[in-house]
Specification:
The chain is 32% helix and 22% strand. The strands form four sheets. The protein has a six-stranded parallel beta sheet with strand order 9-6-5-10-11-12. Strands 1-2 form a two-stranded antiparallel sheet. The relative contact order is 0.20. The radius of gyration is 18 Å and the shape is globular. The protein has one domain: Isochorismatase-like (Rossmann fold, 3-Layer(aba) Sandwich), CATH 3.40.50. β10, α6 and β11 form a beta-alpha-beta unit. α3 runs parallel beside α8. It is α/β, with parallel strands linked by helices.
């Protein structure tokens, strides 16, 4: 048992996660799962990526292993945090005109344009609280989970994420989501700068850039994380680690 700076009492529940470059010891009382941008505009037919002609098959393939990890995490009472990319209807949080974030989203992805979603609803592309920014089927958040919006690639930029994690005594992050070399890598870099230990699950993330090149952006990101910013593991390793730990006593 230990007491953190905020006075919260934690009963350590230790599990060893098979990972690269070496196994990672996790205190499950201080571990959270991040689900990054697994939302309709990125991973569902009729969403923003799909309309832009971007292959979403990799994101779809990541749903099942991610769902298995979330189910096991909930059984062990791990904190689960969903991050979603979404803007205010007036786009006042998109950034200054001419800045990279503004230009990319307006020029290429037509963020804010009104579209009819597959469910028949109308809403702006990548706008908060619309079909496009809802979590994709199969990964629906549960009542105890936390859902945060972000307006930049990193989940730590001008969000409550760091405060939320520190208030809960979290030190270890199991990371899932898309896109591997953009929002996932950006979030892991920022987490590493804040001294969190991050384990990216390779089969619970997906990449849409450079996939047809001899060395994809995904390959580079996995190598960077393994050697510099954290650890790389997979869903099966998490399931094995959590299977050795019973549900916490109430």
């Amino acid at each position: 048992m230990d007491v953190d700076k905020l006075g919260s009492v934690h009963m350590p529940r230790m599990a060893k996660l098979d990972a690269r470059p070496q196994p990672l010891e996790l205190d499950l009382a201080r571990t959270a799962v991040l689900v990054i941008d697994m939302q309709n505009d990125f991973g569902s037919a009729g969403g923003m990526f799909d309309r832009a002609g971007i292959d979403i098959s990799g994101i779809r393939e990541a749903v099942a292993p991610t769902a298995a990890v979330l189910a096991a995490a909930r059984r062990c009472d791990l904190k689960i945090v969903y991050l979603k990319m979404g803007y205010l209807p007036d786009l006042s949080d998109l950034g200054l005109p001419g800045a990279p974030n503004h230009t990319l989203h307006i020029d290429r992805f037509k963020v804010g344009d009104i579209v009819t979603a597959p469910d028949g609803s109308q809403g702006g592309t990548l706008i908060r609280d619309t079909w496009g920014t809802a979590i994709i089927d199969g990964l629906t958040p549960q009542v105890a989970d936390t859902v945060l919006y972000k307006t930049r690639f990193s989940g730590f930029y001008r969000t409550e994420l760091d405060e939320l994690l520190r208030r809960s005594g979290i030190r270890h992050l199991i990371v899932t989501g898309c896109t591997t070399s953009i929002c996932v890598e950006s979030t892991i870099r920022d987490a590493a700068f804040r001294d969190y230990q991050c384990a990216l699950l390779s089969d619970c993330t997906s990449e849409q850039l450079g996939m047809h090149e001899s060395r994809s952006n995904r390959d580079v990101t996995l190598q960077l994380i393994e050697h510099i910013f954290g650890w790389v593991s997979d869903s099966k390793s998490v399931l094995r680690a959590l299977a050795t730990i019973g549900a916490p006593l109430n």
